[in-house]
Here is the input.
Amino acid sequence: MNRKFGAFWLVGLSSLLLVACGSLEQRPEDMPADGGIAAGELPAGEGAESGGAQLGGEFGTAPLTDPASPLAKRVIYFAFDSSDVTPEGRDLIATHARYLAQNPEISVVLEGHADERGSREYNLALAERRAKAVERLMTLQGVGARQLQVISFGEERPVAFGHDESAWQLNRRVELLYSGY
Amino acid sequence: MNALRVLLLLSVLLATTAQARLSIEITQGMEGAMPIAVVPFGWSGPSAPAQDLADIIRNDLARSGQFAPLEVQRLPQLPVDGRDVNFNLWRSVGSDSLVIGRLELRDGRYQVQFQLFDTVRGVQLAGYTMQADAARLRRVAHQIADIIYQRLTGQRGAFDTHIAYVTVENLEAGKRRFRLEVADADGHNEQVILNSGQPLMSPAWSPDGRRLAYVSFEGGRSMIYVQDVASGQRKKVAEFAGINSAPDFSPDGQRLALTLSRDGNPEIYVLELGSGRLTRVTQHYAIDTEPVWAPDGRGLYFTSDRGGRPQIYRVRLDAAGRPLDTPQRITFEGIYNASPALSADGKRLAMVHGDGNRFRVAVLELDTGTLRVLTETRLDESPSFAPNGAMVLYATEVGDRGVLEAVSADGRARQRLRLNKGDVREPAWSPFFGE
Here is the structure.
């Protein structure tokens, strides 16, 4: 089992290298120094020297601990039996994606959850699909695959314990858990 | 004085280690159930015997919904020997069947005798002598109830079987304690076989009733373990990237069907437990999960939302566990059908059936396609057939608490198992032991 797991990681790492090499060949001028983010994903007209100021502007000086930071909201909610991201969810994901793309050393766990209705096993799968929907959007917005980890808890870790829609809507969610915060 | 101190200490210990206990209550009886009298068993020892056998037998028979045992106060005589039975008396109180018995202690072991009579014809239908130590007396009572049940209904009894389930206790500071437990089918003799601070789900019995496969989050995410029930020894059998869940033992006990998302999204696989060899069964971008084996080992039923909503599908397998055909959808009524559970004869499929508001247990007759909803609760989960197919055990929510309920396969008899504290969920009824 461990050997298989190891092999899986090797395959994963080598495909990351392949992706990096591919973009290096196609668009060498777009490759940032760290190899993680394409410059095209940064706001237009912002050069490397003004990037720091822009960062401080949007996310503040304590982006992950300041309750007034746009990153303070870290939960994306979903409709019943759905993994479609709502417009509000998209905005929140985009905010976090910008921060993560600018800070490739920071990683986040995307923890998928479901409400209690129906099958526990199906809900485990559904909650993973929700977390993967968030992962996909973040990757498309320039977040490195290594910065994101998906874990599903299905309906096993509710935040609200009632048995009606007011509790269920809070439990159908993906939580963004920044490591160390 | 010293003895008193020991006693006090003992009772304190008992109080602090006392854990949540299951209690059972019949919530819906059955009209037209067969009247039967079970006379208190004769006993001549110095103090009361370790168990009230007649009471255990009476409760077993009542829970099945097939029998209406007479109350002890209404019994016209209390014979303990067949020669003392007056059949006219029993006919006059409308009891067509009569059970009598006696037990005695010989060299530290109980000798149990019982007889079953047809009072209408005045003949003995069954008579046995059994031996047991005190710890096994309850089991003897269940075995007697099984013999009575089989003799009078023609169907094998399932009282001498077990259930596995998960209990959840809420602790301070939002922490929870999860326990995987096994108990007798009537909820007695609960034993904790796994204790965890992280969620546990989906226990599944091996066909010989000796092992349980289950999903544990103790490693921070879902992984599958197989545990020997008697010894407690266990082995992690699936810890692939993504979710590892929904284990179900093959009928030969050598393989597990399970759900893995290691290749991107949840798919059904077959894992050979001996070699660790993995065979992928489904190939679809939708969710495929909750596989259960057909009794011949040549097919799987599973939940998939490939049609847009969760429904139950069937795929045929070759001897190596490879798929032989494209999965066929087999549920069409209702917008949500999941958690398939097959009866041991493979003819009926229990499931969680959602109509938009409620999630109730339903049973589909696979030959005719007839679907029957068995419950009126709204948050039912995890149905599991008794090994004789006569009852379906499931989890539901009553008064903000997770409870287990069992319903007869015709929906007419029902009982509830609840904990004195916390929730109980994820039931799995064992097969007949040793098969």
In short: The helical segments of chain B are 2-17, 53-63, 87-92, 137-153. The radius of gyration of chain B is 24 Å.
